[in-house]
Automatic annotation (TrEMBL), chain A:
Record protein name field: Dihydrolipoamide acetyltransferase component of pyruvate dehydrogenase complex
Family: Belongs to the 2-oxoacid dehydrogenase family.
Domain Peripheral subunit-binding (PSBD), first and last residues per copy: 119-156
Organism: Halobacillus shinanisalinarum
All residue ranges annotated as the Lipoyl-binding domain in the record: 1-75
Region of interest: Disordered: 76-102
EC number: 2.3.1.-
Amino acid sequence: MDVKLHDIGEGMHEAEILHYFVKKGEPVKNDAPLVEIQTDKMTAELTAPSDGIIGDIKFELGEVVEVGTTILTITTDQKEPSPNLEPTVKASPSEASGGVATQPATRTLDRWLPMNRVMASPHTRRVARENDVNIKNVTGTGRAGRVLDEDIFAYIEAQTQAAPVAEEKSHQDEVVIQNSKEVDETVQTIPFKGRRKQIAKKMTQSLYTAPHVTHFDEVDMTELLHLKKQLKEGTTRQPGISISVAAFFIKALQLSLEEFPIFNSKLDEEKEEIYLESSYNIGLATGTDKGLIVPVLKNVENLSLVEIHEQMKTLTKKATENKLSGQDLRGGTFTISNVGPMGSTGATPILNYPETGLMAFHKTKKMPVVINDEIVIREMMNVTLTFDHRVADGSQSIAFTNKFIDYIEKPHLMLVELT
Amino acid sequence: MTTAVQVKKLTMVQAVTDAMRTMLEEDESVLVLGEDVGQNGGVFRATDGLFEQFGEERVIDTPLAESGIVGTSIGLAVNGFRPIAEMQFLGFIYPAFNQLMTHATRMRQRSMGRYTVPMVIRAPYGAGVKAPEIHSDSVEALFTHIPGLKVVIPSNAYDAKGLLIASIEDPDPVLFLEPMRCYRSSRTEVPDEKYSIELGKASYVKEGSDVTVMTWGAMVPDTVKAVEKFEKEHNATCDVIDLRTLYPLDKDTIAESVKKTGRVVIIHEAPSAGGVNGDIISVINDTSFFYLKAPIQKVTGFDTPVPVYSLEQEYLPSSEKIISALNTTLSY
């Protein structure tokens, strides 16, 4: 039976092989995990469609496989392996040493260990670490392939002999070793694949397809922060509600987009149509340790501020834990990038293609501002709107941004618009 | 060390008596109480002669009520005495468990340090002397789980005297467990004079470099014999550590030895489940995990009550089992 890479539901057409949970010749149960793959946006596990024995594994780790390709095969007509799988401990350590561990022992123990797991005692691991040895590179000669202290020392010796370094330590030797380390660092590489590659692809496509214009403005946040504080304080009869500033941004954006729907649209060049979206699905550009990802907050027009706040929290948590589903990532109509908390004062963001607009919020800080010919201190924030100039014009972007600014600077205006 | 002082060769039970006599002589607040500890001299003669020497006001026969003995001791201790309560067997202490758990060990905290409970409960315990049911229980782990209660177990006469004196002088309650098998099985040189051994300190019975063997109580002499046999058969040497105090454990000595040898065998006659072996492994995990060369081995009694005396030897960790565990760790 062929186990193929199937479309796991987000219109993907290829995925990278990250990790195999099984090895050739191993028995496998129905629904047991077989392989972990990395799609453009997430990692997923493919599971066994039936009981059987793993046949051919057709791809190496790191290879990119197209949807519909057979990744591995499972033989189902063979009998289940007989359960004589207890670790074979008959071989004495001396018999097993020197890399001639009996095959049954190796196979049996491997069955219970994830691939690439090195068997070694904590002591041996410490010896390896203290000697800067990557234990994965050491061949174990102990029982069932266990790495022994001696193997580490043998490895170090082999490495030392291979390297043209003098035997005894001297100042000169230390310099040589240091230099060789420096050389290593310069040739260090990071594989350009997975999410990083996908981000790059998408950014390039966006930048080279849509003529970007970025419009800058500033927003007086004082009133909004005041309102946020009041909400948090509550009353003597009712406890406070904590709502993030970003939730207000999203609500204000949705209300502004209703008035300027061109920024909630997509251009279909082939059909020569600009498609105005009927719902307001706000993408939240979220940085994770695996790279930028944009989960989507759906139908903001139906959500209260509190609901926006809660759902946003859930999505960003899922993003940082790499648990977003395909559903979470689809259907965005406009994207925001809230970089202010990290400290930005301005940027020229790239559109989340094929969307038309992206708004970024920057750092809020106290600034001297002239109001009624007097210098007063206000909480000021820069805001940038990047838009696709094929679809919208500068004047529209200014009007749209002004609307947004109005809602933020006078948050009570939002009240009458709320459904 | 002992050349300048008078030394006698004593059995462990004699050393226990010697320690109590020493403290009764030195400190008027020290009392002995328990069933038949007076004229009768105690079930194992541990209080032999004390009644005659110190009288019925300081060596007190009590009714057959363990809860009463411990409860009375708590009251005495809180009021300035230093009672030494005797349980006839550790297996009889269960009625007094409530007193220990809810009062003796909590008084210091409950009174925010105003009162302490300086009392000792002595209890013979362990299998191997062909005693009837319950008499042979080795349930030390039940007591190491009670915060505030020190649990001390000597394995020879010298330690018994020094540890018991330290226990009597300790400001908090101490459970002093006396392995019955050791009472009269050997004699050790014991100084006449008063001396004490710090609680919470293990001792090296012998030193080696390949395996750390940890044990206590009556298993100490058995372990030493097995280890000596093993060392003769193999080109290896072992650290044998008598833990002596099970609560608090001597973490420093445990870590020091494990860091040296990287291999560990724990031996105790109590059942394995919930036993002190788990605490020791936890200490190793916290202090010296990265020095381990092999999984920790343990040789214990079975997870059953101590069987009838005809099967007792089957229950106790045998020399063969100890040697087998040593082999397993060394050949890992």
